[in-house]
């Protein structure tokens, strides 16, 4: 039994290219497809467009997490469910950033199956702008907690264990995770898209954003309006030169702050009512980056823009954030947001509709 991928009982989440609704394209981490059905099996065919790493996708099937390796190119058939004839619930999701893109091609259920309605999506919405930490890169290397990363080829990256998605689950919120490993604010810095090095300034308003895979396309912001925007940029910006560490008042540091401020003003213009949290993470970086963000926050004089620091901010780990560390970050972050809600009613208007 084939199910059209634009069937209204399917539930998509994330910044998706659905210009062809029967072949939706997943680009960002934490992008997902959810569905429920009564039957025995569910198979999903996907087409992979790989740039680097080995590429993996994930699924929560009846409460159990599964991981699937994709072929480097072409079609991969994923047996998501293979069990007894009963009700099943599946959340299929993109584990990784734009080291690859994914086209959903065909969903097939066992003969005689019945597609069921999904629960309504949460009304609360958050959006994250960040780098590899926000994407959940190397989050499954738990035995390396607090240490440098082990050698890997993509197998440890899992957006399910990113602090952003954990925070969204704690807050019962939807998430758009606009996160890319290696990305900095400015073009020509960071590690993403070597040797051109694209920055978040060029990526934040896009759907397709990795020119090695697809031409860039612009996102329609009217499709998703977050209540809370988490901005976690300012860690890869020290490559190829950590000018902020050397001199916070040098010309390059001043330029960075000018561009960062201009970007936050663009986010504010895009989302006039959202709470915007400026932050970095517990990944080791010089405190002058956070001092610069604090200065910008003060200059903006916006009563819904805040600078948030974790208890281990900038000194928690020299490697990527493992799942247990992301859990601790998410606990701090979600508590901070809930405390803010007590003061300025972040969710109230939406939840009384």
Topology (elements, then pairings):
Blueprint: E1 2-3, E2 11-13, E3 25-26, E4 32-50, E5 56-61, E6 64-69, E7 73-94, E8 100-109, E9 114-116, E10 124-130, H1 132-135, H2 163-171, E11 173-179, H3 200-203, E12 228-232, H4 243-246, H5 251-270, E13 275-279, H6 287-300, E14 305-307, H7 323-344, H8 348-351
Parallel strand pairs: 10-11, 10-12, 12-13, 13-14
Antiparallel strand pairs: 1-8, 2-4, 3-8, 4-7, 4-8, 4-9, 5-6, 5-7
Give an account of the 3D structure.
The chain has 353 residues and is an alpha/beta fold. The chain has eight helices and 14 strands. The strands form two sheets. Strands 1, 2, 3, 4, 5, 6, 7, 8 and 9 form a nine-stranded antiparallel sheet that branches. A five-stranded parallel sheet has the order 11-10-12-13-14, with helices on both faces. Strand 13, helix 6 (287-300) and strand 14 form a beta-alpha-beta unit. It is globular.
* Strands, total number: 14
Catalogue the unreliable spans.
none
Radius of gyration: 20 Å
Fraction in helix: 10-25%
Average pLDDT level: 97
Structural class: alpha/beta
Individual helix count: 8
């Amino acid at each position: 039994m084939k199910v059209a991928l634009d069937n209204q009982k399917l539930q998509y989440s994330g910044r998706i290219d659905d210009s062809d609704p029967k072949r939706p394209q997943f680009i960002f981490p934490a992008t997902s497809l959810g569905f429920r059905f009564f039957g025995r099996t569910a198979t999903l065919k996907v087409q992979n467009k790989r740039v680097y790493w080995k590429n993996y996708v994930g699924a929560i099937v009846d409460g159990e997490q599964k991981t699937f390796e994709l072929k480097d190119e072409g079609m991969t058939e994923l047996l998501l469910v293979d069990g007894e004839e009963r009700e099943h619930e599946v959340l299929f999701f993109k584990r990784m950033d734009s080291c690859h893109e994914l086209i959903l091609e065909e969903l097939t259920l066992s003969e005689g199956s019945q597609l069921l309605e999904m629960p309504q999506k949460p009304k609360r919405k958050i959006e994250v702008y960040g780098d590899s930490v926000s994407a959940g890169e190397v989050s499954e290397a738990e035995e390396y907690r607090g240490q440098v990363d082990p050698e890997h080829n993509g197998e440890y990256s899992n957006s399910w264990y990113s602090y952003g998605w954990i925070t969204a689950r704690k807050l019962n919120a939807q998430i758009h995770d606009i996160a890319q490993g290696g990305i900095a604010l400015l073009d020509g810095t960071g590690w993403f898209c070597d040797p051109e090095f694209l920055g978040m300034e060029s990526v934040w308003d896009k759907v397709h954003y990795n020119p090695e895979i697809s031409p860039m396309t612009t996102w329609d912001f009217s499709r998703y309006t977050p209540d809370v925007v988490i901005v976690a940029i300012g860690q890869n910006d020290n490559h190829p030169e950590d000018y902020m560490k050397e001199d916070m008042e040098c010309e390059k540091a001043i330029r960075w702050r000018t561009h960062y401020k201009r970007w936050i003003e663009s986010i504010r213009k895009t989302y006039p009512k959202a709470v915007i949290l400026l932050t970095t993470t517990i990944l080791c970086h010089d405190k002058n980056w956070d001092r610069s963000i604090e200065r910008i926050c003060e200059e903006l004089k916006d009563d819904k823009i805040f600078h948030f620091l974790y208890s281990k901010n900038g000194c928690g780990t020299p490697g990527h954030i493992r799942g247990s560390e992301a859990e601790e970050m998410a606990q701090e972050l979600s508590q901070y947001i809930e405390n803010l809600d007590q003061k300025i009613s972040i969710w109230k208007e939406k939840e009384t509709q």
